[in-house]
Amino acid sequence: MDSVRSPEWPVAPLGGLAGNSATARYGTSPGIGGPALGRTGPPPTAPPPPYGLPTGTGSTPPPAHRPPAAPPVPVKILIAGGFGVGKTTTVGAISEIAPLTTEAEMTSAGIGVDDPGARSTKTTTTVAMDFGCVTIERSLKLYLFGTPGQARFGFMWEDLARGALGALVVVDSARLDDCFPAIDFFERAGLPFVVGVNAFDGRLALELGEIRWALAIGDHVPLVQFDARDRLSVRDALLVVLDRALDRATRDRRA
């Protein structure tokens, strides 16, 4: 087969260097030192810089891997109380998600059965439950379950209370009779609870000491005043519930 030669490179003379050889083009043979041959200019004054390793390799250790943050601890809290005392409002004021409600319009069939009080403009009622949640310091997540207030929905309380660590019993100071069933339920169940007196229009019909006496609750049961419409006020009341539940858990562990 005939050879093919590039026209750019002249034929090497006998015993000479080929014009397209490494020695002729770069001055030295690969791996052999010697004078530069075939160069048209002076050699470089400094060698090229050494190859740099990519960031994070070689002697420099990669950044430490941070473990993922632990998920918040779930805590179930009940919001209980009589009819029309502000349970749904309490859940809605503090929930970080759109609360799940089961509100139904009140009809004439409820006249004489469901009495929200003379001061109330309530036109709906909870027929199942309310649900909301709020995260506290990224380590604790409260799941809030609001119970229906009417006695005919009492059969749901046992299911809603299962797994709960505590409860906030919401009270209307002008209608104390409506909260007795809730207090009796949690006392029988042995579930830690806090009585929160909802200050409608910022006022109470009775003083807190009078309310404690009327409800016949001991000094071991916290009694607080709060506003169901105010997020910070609801938060403070729920923190008292958490403190009560933690105290119960600590005493049970020591026992």
From TrEMBL:
<dbReference type="GO" id="GO:0016787">
    <property type="term" value="F:hydrolase activity"/>
</dbReference>
<dbReference type="GO" id="GO:0005525">
    <property type="term" value="F:GTP binding"/>
</dbReference>
<dbReference type="InterPro" id="IPR052705">
    <property type="entry name" value="Gliding_Motility_GTPase"/>
</dbReference>
<keyword id="KW-0378">Hydrolase</keyword>
<dbReference type="InterPro" id="IPR004130">
    <property type="entry name" value="Gpn"/>
</dbReference>
<feature type="compositionally biased region" description="Pro residues">
    <location>
        <begin position="41"/>
        <end position="52"/>
    </location>
</feature>
<keyword id="KW-0547">Nucleotide-binding</keyword>
<feature type="region of interest" description="Disordered">
    <location>
        <begin position="1"/>
        <end position="70"/>
    </location>
</feature>
<feature type="compositionally biased region" description="Pro residues">
    <location>
        <begin position="60"/>
        <end position="70"/>
    </location>
</feature>
<comment type="similarity">
    <text>Belongs to the GPN-loop GTPase family.</text>
</comment>
<dbReference type="Pfam" id="PF03029">
    <property type="entry name" value="ATP_bind_1"/>
</dbReference>
<keyword id="KW-0342">GTP-binding</keyword>
<dbReference type="InterPro" id="IPR027417">
    <property type="entry name" value="P-loop_NTPase"/>
</dbReference>
<protein>
    <recommendedName>
        <fullName>Signal recognition particle receptor subunit beta, a GTPase</fullName>
    </recommendedName>
</protein>
